[in-house]
Amino acid sequence: MAKFVSHVGEKGEIFYDDAGTPVWFKAEIHGDIKTPVLLFPTVYTLWKFPETLPIIWTSSYAVEKLINGADLMIPGLIVPPGGMADMKRGDIVAVCCPGSLGAQAVGVLTFDTKDVYSVSGAKGKAVLIAHTYKDHLWESGSKEEPPEIVGEHTDDTEGTSDEQPVAGSVLSERHEDDTGHREQGDEVTAAEMDVLLMNALKQVMATVLDSEHAAGLLPLNASTLYSNYMVPNGPRGITLDIKRSTYKKLAKFLKAAEKLGLIKLKDIRGELHIKTLEWSHREVASFEPYRVGRARGGDRPPESASTSNNTGGSSGGAGMIQIIELLKPSRDLVPLFGDVGARTESGFFSRQEARGVLEQYIKKHELVNPNNPRMIKLDHFVCDGLLAKEEHSKLSEMARDKLHGRLQEKMTLYTQIVVPGRAPGAPKIGNPTAVEIACEKKMGSKVLTRIAGLEAYDIDPAAVAKDLRTMCASSTGVDPIPGKKNAQSVHVQGHQVAAVSKLLEKRGIPAHLLKVTDKTGKAPKKQGGGKAAT
pTM of the predicted model, to two decimals? Predict the structure, then answer.
């Protein structure tokens, strides 16, 4: 027997067998319900005696969250076609994945299972987790992997299309093949789409619009967030569609995300914008990025919200232009990437792929500090690739999030522009070129709004001039840009920044790539009724 104190100060006892394997432990659970000290079997015991505890079913995707320290949430429950066994609030339960009785976690139930359908649509915790596969207790044993245990009821949950997820459960692993692609014929329910959309928002916050890279983009237009960031960051093989969710409208989804505390919204000139992204939110901090539907290294364009051409016609473009960020390892990082065999056909990595490489390296060389899993030990490849020379002798470990931040800084950024319906452009080093919108005085008090840089996004300046002529009821024109071959600017009479911005965003250019300069020294007059402000 051994005594322990958990990271939150809870005391307990661990009981070992003659081989040194932890088989039982005593612990007190705090959370939605407070329990007395309870005796729990470990996963090792449950793998030998799988009928010891009643079972709660969830997906392997949800299990990843449990391993990272989360409790099992109500939306993560999977209800077999025959219903759940009769269990009471406070019962000790095993958590398993469909197809096997091999327990993944042990915890305490927070509700009576006879009420399972009354909690459908609810949020909150279903099981308070006391112990999981891959935690420190498991590591003190033989570190076996969960066995596949087929029992009397596993057929009720494996591979059936009748599983009833509560409150929009995450998709079960039965929907995906070994590469993460969703099998053809599997339909996504509206409740599942709700979860996919919320996870896509967290994916974007964790990997693309993180605290380091998004500060200069806020406030961000809601449509831009959805089309340019969330849709390309859905799971492989699944196309995100707000209309197929229970929300139906983007504004309703975003308000739900705001209510959860993930974002804060702001209305700007009648359009919804994301004011802040709450990166410190627990669900974002603990979020484990997944493989997305985007192609690796720019080998093919990502799935887009639309494949319509953005350049023709007067109605404006339908699909969002995609700006894909690609990273290449610096010379100092090549040994680290090579050590784990990380390579892509193009030589480029997405941000989440780069994070995955570092995590793979950390796991391979067991660099996690066992006394503080947040801290990562620094070996020679990590020091050479991510530290400044003067830091080599001063630092022996670094927080995981800071280490990932260093990785993003040390890799070389490339961007690739993908226009719907056209072949993707070649990746170019650095950030994409902004479209310049400048208001300037001409001939005394007259004001012109000029747009330059459309060629980078394959947008026809003449088509833009035609649209602005109608929108603003003003004269427009197209002029060659001196000193730039095949480059043209568009001008429209009056202070037309709002109209120009709206048109270009409609044609697919992300709002953060519109650079506005006012050389008139005056604030624009309020526009209305289609008349230009002069």
Answer: 0.41
